[in-house]
Amino acid sequence: MKLKWDIGAAYELFTSLFVIHNPSIFGVRPSWAAGVRSRIPADSRDIFTQSLPFLKSPLQWVHSLPEPKNGATVVGQLESINPEDVLSNIAPMCGPEDEIGLFFRGITGKGSWDEADICKFEKLVEPPAGKKHKINIDELSGWLNCWAHPVEFGTGFIRGISDYYESFFREEEKRIEPALQQGLADAQKKALSLSTEDLIEELSQGIKSDMLSDKETVVLMPSFWLGPLVMLADLGNEVGMMQFGSRPADASLIPGDVVPDSLSTGLQALSDHTRLKILKLIAKEPLTQVEIAKKLRLRAPTI
């Protein structure tokens, strides 16, 4: 497996947008995230709400951008695309020849969708036997609406990204760029002493993915906003991508916060009597989930 590197605030523009629309996943204060979202026009916020669960961060599209890969480049490149073509350019897994790409283009051709289309999509993405994959119908419905009305989507998406960049991200990328550079340098240093497989496991904090395991080449990009999670993408031609969290331990995700995220999250996790009891038990000896449940007289799923 070969290793390549990439870096750019352009990745962070989309990642931060995804985070502020999913604050609970990333431990961000919902009120603060709502305040940032309020700077985006209402119709564009609706389009983001519909598209982000499936779009997340368009890593493939950002990877193809010219240097410098920053917020201004994202806005400029989007504004150069016809609104009706924006979605087909940035959407993942929607190549002109693959089945999923043909499916979504069929929705665009009809200008509408129905229950039969939902069933067809579920069959297209049906996981291998023995694996679970539940589709959120509400999220899928929003995504299908985007494909059914591509001009409306593209117009609102371009305007929304431009407003988000001007109202928030232009200053934010100045704050996070030094941390991205340091995150890249630290990861490249680790790569000198680790195999590619071990490096991926180290940077992802233990995640192993089938999407990357069979790739000939993996592109790695540091992220301030994503930590401690990762985001994966398939570039095709035996190339995979992984955006890994690289926010410093003493830094806060929210600009201006003086309490580091790691400390805040740790204290929140400890602010529960049951969790403190569990820590007290496992500090003495290793225990399984079932053993802890018996000692505390609680159900195993609760533990």
Strand fraction:
5-15%
Mean pLDDT: 89
Distance between the termini: 39 Å
The rough form would be described as: globular
What's the helix count? 16
Strand arrangement within the widest β-sheet reads 1-2-4-3
**How large, in whole angstroms, is the Cα Rg?**
21 Å
Q: In terms of structural class, how would the helical and strand content be classed?
A: alpha/beta
Topology as H/E string? EHHHHHHHHHHHHHEEEHHH
Give the % helix. Answer: 55-70%
Number of strands: 4
Low-confidence parts: none
What does the largest sheet look like?
4 strands, mixed
Description:
The longest helix is centred in the middle third of the chain and has 42 residues, at 150-191. This protein has a four-stranded mixed beta sheet with strand order 1-2-4-3, sandwiched between helices. With 303 residues, the chain is α/β, with parallel strands linked by helices. The protein has helices at residues 9-20, 23-26, 30-37, 42-55, 59-63, 71-79, 86-90, 99-110, 115-124, 137-148, 150-191, 196-203, 210-213, 261-270, 273-284, 289-296; strands spanning 2-5, 217-223, 230-236, 239-245. The radius of gyration is 21 Å and the shape is globular. The protein starts with a strand and ends in a 7-residue tail after the last helix. The chain contains 16 helices and four strands.
Q: What's a quick, concise take on this entry?
A:
The protein is an alpha/beta fold. The protein has helices spanning 9-20, 23-26, 30-37, 42-55, 59-63, 71-79, 86-90, 99-110, 115-124, 137-148, 150-191, 196-203, 210-213, 261-270, 273-284, 289-296; strands at residues 2-5, 217-223, 230-236, 239-245.
